[in-house]
Amino acid sequence: MTANPLVLTQDVISAEIDQARRAYAEELKEGAEPRPHPARGYRPYRSSVARHPRQPLVVVGDPDAVELSGPVFGVTDITDLDSDLTRQHLGEPLGERMQVTGRVADRDGRPVRGQLVEIWQANSAGRYAHQRDQHPAPLDPHFTGVGRCLTDDQGRYTFTTIKPGPYPWRNHLNAWRPAHIHFSLFGTAFTQRLVTQMYFPGDPLFEYDPILQSVTDEAARSRLVATYDHSLSSPEWALGYRWDIVLDGPAATWIEEGR
Amino acid sequence: MTFLPTPSQTVGPFYGYALPFTGGGNIAPAGEPGTITVHGQVFDGAGAPVPDALLEFWQPAPDGSRTGAPGSLRRDAVTGAVVGRTGVEFTGFGRVATDADGRYVLRTLPPGGVPYISVCVFARGLLHHLFTRAYLPHLTDPATEPLLRSLPEHRRATLLAVREREGVHRFDVRLQDDGVHEETVFLAFE
User: Fold this and answer.
1) What angle do CA B139, B29, B17 make, to 5 degrees?
2) Which residue of chain A is at minimal alpha-carbon distance from B184?
3) Distance to chain B for A235, nearest Cα, Å
4) Regarding beta strands B162-165 and B168-170, do their DSSP bridges make them parallel or antiparallel, or are they unpaired?
5) pLDDT tens, residue by residue, A13-66
6) Residues paired with residue A120 on neighbouring β-strands, in sequence order
7) CA B134, B139, B144, B150: dihedral to nearest 10 degrees?
8) Neighbours of B175 (CB within 10 A)
9) Which contacts (CB < 8 Å, 24+ apart) does range B144-150 have?
10) Is the pLDDT reported for residue A3 higher than 90?
11) CA-CA distance, A124 to A161, in Å (whole number)?
12) Chain centroid to CA A102: how far?
């Protein structure tokens, strides 16, 4: 069978991923600073092409910038059930029960205390409770796949959930996302805002996925992968994963901020 | 010891049950005199509206306080449903998902001490969020505002909301130049 040039294949995407990786390696060799975040324009992820600015970001050096402070959340913003995604319906969701826990810190290593962590994910069959998800995998009436919690006084979060399944998407022919949980995090400053995705160790889909591979720095990419931690697994109950998070971006000093 | 940042990843298309909440754009207490409306559309590089963007807003209270207040996502302890802000504290935080036409509407009080509302943009296709500022024209003197002064006229204009009528301002976000309209100025903080 001859290849249809109009169909975007994994081979084309994989070649572009490889090209971006080699270009990054060249940049490093020429003395560029490592880049922990993805470039906003990353062609293998086709949706990024028309949705990223072409002009450089304008650097704000203003120490009075409003963005150096940020929103706060409290006990009224969550309920006790929000951190257990397996208890939000009348019955139990299907799948591999798991817990994920970790510490949220700022780039100086200080714990981010009392801040909001929000997660969302597909069910164990790889389907989101979202009407635009057309993947013909079963919906689970006992799973919405949404959670939130506040970090404790050491910056820790914990969620109980089920392991999400991988799922197909339409970036290219035969595109599959590795299993992942979406995370949204707040620091003490709006500049520290982070939305990201946590992946599971050993997933064979990593190398094919343009979203994970958009982080061209290998060490940075590995920081998106949780660790299986047997000491966090609960007998007869759930598997345990650890995933620590470090928020980038400046914040007002603690003395100025007083919180 | 160095603490290396966790990389950003796109918010994707399926955050719907997780992030937006009823009343997310109503930072101002209902009926509060002096409430302003800031609204607009998010566009991509083809000039098409972006129907799956999520905008977050952060601003000082009218008295200039930047401490914010909890309760933006306040929940009913019985049902878990969002019950809205108390209307007493000013939380300073808003969150709105764009509609099918790429539109958002924010109702808030004027920020104290600065002439702008801080904006953070998330979207499917955007691997790392973008910061910008919506400067309110009736509060802004472009000649004295350091960020605006540093920009050429055509770039500066993208940060200035446009007054439509008393208390109503339009602020569009253009993720990329579409050949007709200037791309919005996006910000980095160091």
Assistant:
1) 105
2) A53
3) 30
4) antiparallel
5) 999 999 999 999 999 999 999 999 999 999 999 999 999 999 999 999 888 999
6) A146, A182
7) 10
8) 26
9) B145/B115, B146/A62, B147/A58, B147/A60, B147/A62, B147/B187, B150/A58
10) no
11) 10
12) 13
Question: Which among B66, B72, B184 has CB closest to A73?
Answer: B72
pLDDT band at B93 (very low <50, low <70, confident <90, very high): very high
Interface test with A, best of B128, B132, B175 (most A CBs within 10 A): B128
Q: Do B127 and A214 touch (CB under 8 A)?
A: yes
Q: Write b or e for each residue in A82-92: b if 16 or more Cβ atoms lie within 10 A of its Cβ, otherwise e.
A: bbebbebeeee
Q: Could you tell me the two tokens for B171?
A: 């602020």
Show residues of chain A in contact with B76, CB under 8 Å.
79
Residues in B 122-181 with any Cβ partner in A closer than 8 A = 122-131, 146-147, 150-151, 155, 175-177
Chosen from A66, A123, A134 to mutate, greatest number of chain B CBs within 10 A: A66
- Among residues B86, B24, B16, the alpha carbon closest in space to that of B58 is found at B24
* DSSP assignments along A43-92, one per residue: TTSGGGTTSS-SSPPEEE--TT-GGGS-----GGG--GGGGBTTSSSSSP
Residues of B in contact with A168 (CB under 8 A): none
List CB contacts (< 8 A) between A259 and chain B: 67
* CA pair distance B91, B26, nearest whole angstrom: 10
Positions of A marked active-site:
128, 167, 177, 180, 182
Tell whether B6 is within 8 A of chain A (Cβ). Answer: yes
Question: Is there a contact between A37 and B14 if contact means CB atoms under 8 Å apart?
Answer: no
How many CB atoms are closer than 10 A to CB B30?
11
Asked whether the predicted pLDDT for residue A133 surpasses 90, the reply is: no
- Model confidence over A66-115: pLDDT tens digits? 999 999 999 999 998 999 999 999 999 999 999 999 999 999 999 999 99
What is the length of chain A? 259
Counting one residue from chain A and one from chain B, the pairs whose CB atoms sit within 8 A come to 248
Cross-strand bridge partners of residue B187? A58, B131
Sign of the CA dihedral with A205 first, then A210, A216, and A222 last? negative
Phi, psi of A12 (to 5 degrees): -65, -45
pTM over 0.90: yes
Q: One-letter amino acid identity for B32?
A: E
Residue A105 · residue A155 · CB < 8 Å: yes
Residue in A48, A73, A224 nearest the CB of B126: A48
Sign for the pseudo-dihedral over CA of B151, B187, A114, B20: positive
